[in-house]
Write a structure and sequence with these properties.
Blueprint: H1 3-13, E1 19-22, H2 28-35, E2 43-46, H3 47-50, H4 57-67, E3 75-78, H5 81-89, E4 93-96, H6 100-108
Helix pairs in contact: 1-6
Length: 111
């Protein structure tokens, strides 16, 4: 677990809900719970549960629908350029993660 990223997540949760949307197996929720990370986010959306994986646009649409939000109301942070590009094409604010400093700057610029 990256302590810097976890600190950003904790800070952001004071401002807005934070959900984890990731490509994962059906074991994701149990794995997060075993690490105590299930309590660090407001919700978890897994490709195994959504039935579609990144970078398919259907993944992002399904995640937004599950949250009851339009894509323009969502931020996506990912370390894979194709995933960031796919989210941006749908109108999501998307950031390519390369480090905590850039992540903080991206989130600070979002109301």
């Amino acid at each position: 677990v990256d302590a810097g990223v976890l600190a950003v997540v904790r800070d952001e949760r004071r401002r807005r809900p934070v959900h984890l949307a990731t490509d994962a197996t059906t074991r994701l929720r149990a794995d997060l719970a075993a690490l105590g990370l299930d309590r660090e986010v407001d919700g978890v959306l897994s490709s195994a549960e959504l039935g579609v994986a990144k970078p398919d646009p259907g993944f992002y649409r399904a995640a937004c629908a599950a949250l009851g939000l339009e894509p323009s109301a969502c931020c996506v942070v990912d370390d894979t350029p194709a995933h960031v590009a796919a989210a941006a094409r749908l109108g999501m604010r998307a950031h390519l993660f390369t480090g905590v400093v850039g992540l903080r700057a991206f989130l600070a610029a979002r109301p």
